[in-house]
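> call design_seq(struct)
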């Protein structure tokens, strides 16, 4: 029986542990800088190297960022939390233990929202806790080299409840979490740089059974695509094994993206194997109600909430999704709309997500360093809304406004770019055009409706593109349909 057919009687149970690199300038417990791409082992210090006599001092900014994420996701913030030592040996962890949080994490509960077939769904969290990162092993043939630049970098680990039921749902969860941490400024969220790394715990059970099956852990997956592929592969592997009468072994597996399969790495440890105990060098973290409320008051609107708000304004789902994909893009759109008025929400959406981003791309700039302020763009869009200029003329003006401080109305007045809206003037042009093209007029009246475009184009050509297209269409139809 194929895995696809067998999947009808099996149910996957998936929980994700996502390591989020916090956007601190220095490491979690020392003053060493955090910088991607620095020369190997150039960002270390006595604490990172675990030299005798060195003592950790916690980076307060890491605490604030973790609390910011926790509050945004509806977690309960612990007023008293503690660091522990998690013991295991890796060559990229000089101390022989990781500083983490065990039984007293900073955040508990909460959820990550995702969209499932357009419907919002909350994926429950167990906890979010603070810890420091290990270094990185670089393997070259028979040699392995250790780079400790990443060792000690501040992380928070976002642990979901085992409530995900498909690889697609897990990938959607990762996308949503990445977007949220970027919106909040908690992390750059660049998966290629290791800012977001996922460990997926996967088991299967017969449908309808409540007890969990034996789980395996897929370690350090760093892309949405690989998260989905690795989980799909693991679900199929476990189904095949159980239907062949084999036993699933609790273990940690590595995902080989090139080969499209996982391989066993080591037996999966339980909490007792790590020999957790409170770190004697670090005092408990004490957080006041005032600090919690201050951070809560600074939270921005989250992506899915913004998306729903934009759809309520009348935007298409695709436009709302694009505009809410990045915090600075959303802020630019909102500022434009504040100057333009909500009645023109669709017009603003079309121009911000279309022509504006295209011009910024041409200039090699991002929305955050746009030379065109939202209020000036709104001024341009007002001229379109009141039929002073056409969209075609507006695009030319937009390109010029990107390179000058001029207001759109000043450019239009100075250069006489306003649309021709004098009906008598347009009627004269239309009448002359129809008189000079009798064959096309006859063709249109015999059923060739496409010729209307020819007539519109000729009027626009005769007026240098200044004729109001809506009026031109109305005048032509009035003449041609009689």
């Amino acid at each position: 029986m194929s895995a696809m057919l067998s999947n009808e009687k099996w149910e996957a149970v998936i929980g994700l542990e996502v390591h989020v690199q916090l956007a601190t300038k220095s490491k979690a417990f020392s003053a060493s800088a955090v910088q991607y791409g620095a020369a190997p082992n150039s960002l270390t210090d006595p604490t990172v190297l675990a030299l005798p006599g060195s003592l950790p001092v916690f980076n307060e900014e890491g605490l604030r960022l973790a609390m910011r994420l926790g509050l945004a996701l509806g977690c309960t913030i612990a007023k008293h939390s503690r660091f522990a030592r998690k013991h295991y040996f890796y060559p990229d962890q000089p101390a022989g233990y990781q500083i983490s949080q065990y039984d007293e994490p900073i955040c508990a509960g909460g959820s990550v929202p995702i969209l499932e077939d357009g419907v919002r769904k909350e994926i429950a969290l167990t906890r979010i806790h603070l810890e420091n990162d290990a270094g990185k092993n670089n393997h070259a043939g028979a040699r392995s080299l250790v780079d400790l630049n990443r060792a000690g970098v501040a992380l928070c680990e976002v642990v979901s409840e085992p409530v995900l039921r498909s690889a697609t749902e897990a990938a959607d969860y990762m996308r949503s979490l990445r977007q949220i941490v970027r919106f909040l400024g908690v992390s750059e969220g660049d998966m290629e740089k290791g800012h977001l790394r996922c460990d997926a715990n996967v088991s299967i059970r017969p449908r309808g059974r409540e007890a969990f099956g034996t789980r395996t852990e897929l370690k350090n997956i760093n892309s949405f695509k690989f998260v989905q592929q690795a989980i799909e592969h693991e679900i199929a592997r476990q189904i095949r094994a159980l239907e062949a009468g084999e036993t699933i072994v609790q273990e940690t597996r590595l995902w080989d993206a090139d080969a499209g399969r996982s391989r066993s790495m080591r037996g999966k440890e339980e909490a007792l194997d790590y020999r957790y105990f409170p770190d004697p060098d670090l005092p408990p973290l004490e957080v006041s109600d005032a600090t919690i409320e201050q951070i809560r008051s600074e939270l921005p609107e989250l992506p899915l909430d913004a998306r729903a708000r934009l759809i309520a304004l009348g935007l298409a789902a695709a436009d709302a999704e694009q505009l809410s994909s990045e915090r600075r893009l959303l802020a630019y759109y909102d500022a434009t709309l504040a100057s333009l008025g909500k009645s023109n929400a669709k017009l603003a959406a079309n121009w911000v997500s279309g022509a504006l981003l295209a011009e910024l791309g041409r200039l090699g700039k991002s929305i955050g360093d746009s030379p065109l302020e939202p209020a000036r763009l709104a001024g341009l869009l007002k001229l379109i809304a009141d039929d002073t200029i056409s969209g075609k003329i507006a695009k030319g003006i937009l390109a010029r406004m990107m390179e000058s401080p001029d207001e759109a109305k000043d450019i239009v007045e100075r250069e006489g770019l306003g649309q021709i809206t004098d009906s008598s003037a347009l009627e004269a042009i239309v009448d002359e055009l129809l008189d000079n093209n009798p064959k096309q007029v006859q063709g249109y009246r015999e059923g060739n409706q496409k010729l209307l475009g020819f007539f519109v184009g000729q009027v626009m050509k005769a007026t240098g593109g200044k004729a109001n297209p809506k009026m031109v269409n109305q005048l032509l139809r009035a003449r041609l349909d009689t």
